[in-house]
């Protein structure tokens, strides 16, 4: 079978994270780590700080933690502010990305020393894909997590998308507030017209991007799933974009007219309920393995393998779209996979791409991996480096 991941093609750059420095971040008062451009293994018992390191890298990549939306929780309990700095090398050039979190929970961003106005400006400087135990929720729980996953992927390959999505959500909040005012006759229904226009414009952009990305993600995630479950004869994974506003081949024109029609038809009901009932905030993603819906019928192992395949698909997609290797962050990915899937996953990790993987137990790694890797041991927020 043709190698799927980590094939260094001529057009792809070798972006890698050179180092990370943490100040008052979670259980670290001060920490500096230098990474190898290929495999890095972080070993440590439970509750020592392994996930915290990956969380900090993810934070530099997407401007948000994967575990909390409250930035204040990231500041060390004994401190009043926190600072995270990462240095990435791309095409021989270094980029320094800094994020400071103040007591008020607000963050400030600097790229190469220059202050940036918006958190979204951070995206794209250090591209990383994190697979973590919480990813099971993408498959198992409600549609919000699946929409969030897709939106993160699109933002990483198309930086303007982040801002369009923010505009859409803002418009949605304001439109919902207006619907409630109309219900109590404080405002005229015609006040909705302007918001409808804005909702349709921003919403259509979101739908077009989601449709395109899901189609491509499906291909890459399916390849990853097949590889992990035995290659050619392996199981297949299929992703279907569930959007009420798409009928057949989607074009912006078709989506806009359908959007308008649906809003018109549902206006009365929307006023009655005080919320917007049409638009991409109601989208979902159907994840199937061999035709079976993983959310309802997947076994724990299938759901976990599906979520891992989604992340590996994300990795491949970012690589294809940005011509750059994203950093692959695997948090405790091995312990819950059976031996076969574990071996397949480790085989997929090759030298050309940077991988940072955490584990409580070195037995999950082949001796060769332990020998070649840059090995860290973490104990109580202190890191020692095994050569
Ligand atoms: N703001 C904070 N200040 C200080 N310590 C914190 C803060 N937030 C979390 N911690 C602590 O950091 C410790 C390490 O957490 P982390 O999630 O990184 O552990 P881990 O090594 O990944 O463990 P596991 O193997 O169980 O996943 C935890 O004991 C947690 O209570
Ligand atoms: Mg952990």
Characterization of the model:
Helix 3 (143-157) crosses helix 4 (160-183). A hairpin with a 2-residue loop joins strand 4 (82-90) and strand 5 (93-101). The protein has two domains: 1-127 and 324-387, P-loop containing nucleotide triphosphate hydrolases (Rossmann fold), CATH 3.40.50.300; 134-323, Glutathione S-transferase Yfyf (Class Pi), Chain A, domain 2 (Up-down Bundle), CATH 1.20.1050.90. The protein has helices at residues 50-62, 136-140, 143-157, 160-183, 192-228, 252-273, 294-297, 300-322, 339-348, 367-372, and strands spanning 16-25, 28-34, 39-43, 82-90, 93-101, 107-111, 114-116, 128-131, 237-242, 284-289, 292-293, 327-331, 355-359, 374-379, 382-386. It has ten helices and 15 strands. The model is unreliable at 1-10 (pLDDT under 50). With 387 residues, it is an alpha/beta fold. The protein is 41% helix and 22% strand. The strands form three sheets. Strands 2-1-4-5-6-7 form a six-stranded antiparallel β-sheet, covered by helices on one side. The chain has a six-stranded mixed β-sheet with strand order 8-12-13-3-14-15, with helices on both faces. The protein is globular and about 70 Å long. Bound molecules: adenosine-5'-triphosphate and magnesium ion. Magnesium ion is lined by residues 50-51, 331-332. Adenosine-5'-triphosphate binds next to helix 1.
